[in-house]
Amino acid sequence: MPRPAMSMLRFFLLLPVVLMASCTLHLPAPEISRQRVETRSVPVAASADTVPIYLLSDSLHTALVFDLKWLEESGYVKPHETGDHKWVTMSWGEETAYVQERWLNPFQVFRALCTPSPSVMEIIPIDWKVEQVCHHQEVFISEVPRSSGPALAAFLNGCAAKRSDGTPETIAPSSWGNGRLIRCPKNYSYYFPRICNVWTAQSLQSCGYSIKTRSALSASGLVRQATAQRNGFVKIWDPETDEKKSAGPAS
Known about the structure:
The chain is α+β, with helices and mostly antiparallel strands.
């Protein structure tokens, strides 16, 4: 291969590495969200002073479900469109992947992973049992102290670009349900290794969970840490087995 062609090939092979090295792993976080209520050594037992948090997971993606009233009492500012509901399912990712209804093409995948891309935070209100609404994903549950709410709310508020009235700016309907996609600030770009599960890890960290972000890039790596004894998430729904039980015996 001619030397100029070899040099060009080397450049394109090294470009993703250079980009990754120059990009930070973590999303920006307000100071209060970094001052965690506690670092867990044992799970928190359910009581009047705790609220449940649900972790949703499939083979690639994770999301969290929060008590909306608790979030608002803790200072979270929800979009106008969200209304009053029991729960909100929230996740974060690359804007095109959420907005576009069809699968990403190879160029879009490369651009999303290897170059900083706009991101969105999805919020979907629900009022039914979480495991029945999100039955296509594994569902885990844990308890957090109510006092961890302000740190979590600060992190979630920081993930949203704001309208002039201070509420989150939304850009499109959610990928499912009756939710919305919240535009994130420009410095919340999506790229590898700053992917969807990093947001989930940082949200859990702000609640006091002991999660190592670099070991939580994959959904399985995040779930493995969340279900460790020190964090205490417990699986309450597995679509591989529980949906078959719900369907009953085949006729």
